[in-house]
């Protein structure tokens, strides 16, 4: 198997004068709000572990003419920021996904900030995963103590993967380090596929990238938290702040928008990892559809270069979901969409007050979409 960019760093192109931002005609006209509301199911899914302080993840599922869509922006998103989430859900429900280029895609396993002794057990739940993302820089700890733990955890992962060909380790610091700490930590943890969001800001990411390059440490930098809005990836690219963009379908406004963005970023020598934003099985459908539809790339020997392993194996974060979890086979997930089970939808239905709150949020997102559409003459409706 041939992996693109592993341990190599492609030069980035000089910043173009204008950001490539082709707008894709989408759903003219928008489906009526009343129709979306009529098709909406609000469910509350119990989480296996607390995530973003949540014990339950609430999502709106839309049973549309083309399939199921999801609308589930986190509570701290403004109405304006929730519009792309609805755009994504409406795309899945009313337009469906583009035709796939692959039936299975590789995903990464995730190792949270556990003790090294727990690593084998954590990895045993992700059979066949050859790419492992390890959480590092645990919050609330002294830098040096945390780094010692990180080194031990990453070594335990490396040991578990030893002997398996084509394995890769990524680390995710969730923006916790300063530039100096990031350079020190990455030097100690290398070799790595990439370091995800080592520092908080795109400017710091750019500095880490430059310093690593100067020292001859060939570890790529990935931006995750720095990419929340459609504009952000272009800013990260403009600053040459990252080699990889971690992109999530819902906050960026749907599968087609992510495919366009991926093409734009690849044209600027950035790689793309598609990940989930704590989505139910329905939301994961969209992430899988995006990876499945990435164009086929061939290397010098004309071998199809698989997309970067996706961060979509997050189903195990839920105790219960609206359909049976997708099974991971040899580190791969099937890309065909999964529909919710009627029984599970009924059993996991949210209470009346929760349902009302979410439908109000959906109305507010719809209003934002309409307003944006009016401003842009119907060309595109991602918020600015
Ligand atoms: Mg991350």
From TrEMBL:
One function term, GO molecular function aspect: O-succinylbenzoate synthase activity
Residue intervals of the Mandelate racemase/muconate lactonizing enzyme C-terminal domain: 116-215
EC number: 4.2.1.113
Cofactor(s) it depends on: a divalent metal cation
Pathway entry: Quinol/quinone metabolism; 1,4-dihydroxy-2-naphthoate biosynthesis; 1,4-dihydroxy-2-naphthoate from chorismate: step 4/7; Quinol/quinone metabolism; menaquinone biosynthesis
Entry keyword set: Lyase, Magnesium, Menaquinone biosynthesis, Metal-binding
Transmembrane segment boundaries: none
Gene3D superfamilies from the UniProt entry: Enolase-like C-terminal domain (3.20.20.120), Enolase-like, N-terminal domain (3.30.390.10)
Bias kind Low complexity: ranges: 9-25
InterPro entries: Enolase-like_C_sf (IPR036849), Enolase-like_N (IPR029017), Enolase_C-like (IPR029065), Mandelate_racemase_C (IPR013342), OSB_synthase_MenC1 (IPR010196)
Pfam families: Enolase_like_N, MR_MLE_C
Region (Disordered): 1-25
Active site: residue positions: 135, 248
Catalytic activity, reaction form: (1R,6R)-6-hydroxy-2-succinyl-cyclohexa-2,4-diene-1-carboxylate = 2-succinylbenzoate + H2O
Binding sites annotated in the UniProt record for Mg(2+): 172, 196, 224
Protein's job: Converts 2-succinyl-6-hydroxy-2,4-cyclohexadiene-1-carboxylate (SHCHC) to 2-succinylbenzoate (OSB).
Family recorded in the similarity comment: Belongs to the mandelate racemase/muconate lactonizing enzyme family. MenC type 1 subfamily.
UniProt-recorded name of the protein: o-succinylbenzoate synthase
Record organism: Corynebacterium propinquum
Organism placement in taxonomy: Bacteria, Bacillati, Actinomycetota, Actinomycetes, Mycobacteriales
